[in-house]
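Hi everyone,

Forwarding the result from last night's run.
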Amino acid sequence: MIKDVRLREMASPLGEEQPKENDALKVHESTKLSEVSLSELKDMILVDDQGQPVGWISKEAFIKQLLDAYQMHHAFFQAFLASADDAVTIVDKDGIVKGWSKRSEDMYGLPYEEVVDQPINTFFDSNALMVISTIQQEMKVEKKYNQPKHDIHVLINSMPVYRNGALIGGISVERDISDLVKLNNELATTTAYLHDLESNVIQQNNLAPFQKIKGRSDALQRAVRLAKKVATTDASVLITGESGVGKELFAEGIHLASQRADKPFIAINCGAIPAALFESELFGYEPGAFTGAVKGGKKGKVDAAKGGTLFLDEIGELPLELQVKLLRVLQEKMFYRVGGTEAIPIDLRIVAATNRHLEEMVEKGEFREDLFYRINVISIPIPPLRERPEDIPELIQLFLKEFSLKYAKAIPTIDPEVIYTLLKYKWPGNIRQLRNLIERLVILSGDEHDVIKLHHLPEALQGKNGKVETLNVENEIPAAQPEKADEVAQIKAALTRTYGNKSAAAKLLGISRATLYNKMKRYELE
């Protein structure tokens, strides 16, 4: 905004030369220069709130001030058009160009002298002009993708311009994203080629343990380098990070890069097994150990991982009483089956993962300090997706190919506006949420020449820059009922609104993660 001069700033003091009140126009001293009507212009006497004269302005002085203000505004206006990074176009209500920035000249190859005072549709298809649509519909547009020419892609902000309540024209500001679109297309082609090549390499060479981890960001590559370094040792590893960042992929990579690669990799989710069953799942049980036990007993996960790696996901959910027994495995390299009296020696490596702050749990007495130090010889923090947006395009292309093959569809093109939105989104569910979203987009694509548009995105992602809508539980999830159908509906609604994030869904439903896992298993919702 440019400051508008008030009349009191240009007034002359009262004196002998002031006009007679009957011959002058009385105007309040706070009136702005732009607010004075020029239809009956004459000398003016300025008055205060009490109607008392405080100064005066001659008609000639007013016109000079008006001309000075116009010249100043015009100079600022021209400087703005010459220096703006984005292409700026200003048209009147009839579509005649009144402003054309230096960036517009460079982008479209049309000099200012040829464009100004000419109809904008002389140079462009009027159907592709957002500024014309803005004038016709009198509607503001923000970050709208447009392709005004075959080789130019832009994001547009456009708005109508009013004077004294009447529409006088419109202005559009265009950000050139042609290079981004070109790079995205090149990335799609290159990524598809690299994944084909990578698949062939992996098939012929099993020594590529970290190839499943995608991303070139410095933060992610630091974690990969640390994982590769620790993999050659037998030290216990704690992988930390939010839900959905790919902690199990790191655990698998560490196992495959270790000397235990030819032995089993056994994963167990500590948050998915009820506490009453956890000991038997982890250590197994002897025949007749409890009512309902399988005849002949059963080996546990520790036994199954013999010689290999046991991955304990969500270890922060491990009950305190079982933490003691796990500590014995780490310290004494032995364990007892449920109902057994014989100590069973075991050789394995422990890799644990958590999305919780174990140090705080130790301070609160919720996690054993001695076990924490045993599993935390080396800690590998995995950065959330919002801290490495440069990895998003590669992940998008990876998932596009995966789900296009799964659903036997051509690999779709993604509208640049969608790419822009996904780069700005905060991804509370991280890679798991992105993968879930791309699967949805692939399924919904195909109705517009295989181009994924903004309207294919869930409402929470459409132009809200990562601000996810808050779920209204009363409106979105049916009230709890004993009937199975209602409970299934509750779970499905929660999972849908949290993009498959089970921890967030459990919190939404007011139950523990273990309870949610059990209900999903019971209702076959895996």
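The two ends are 57 Å apart (CA to CA).

Cheers,
N.
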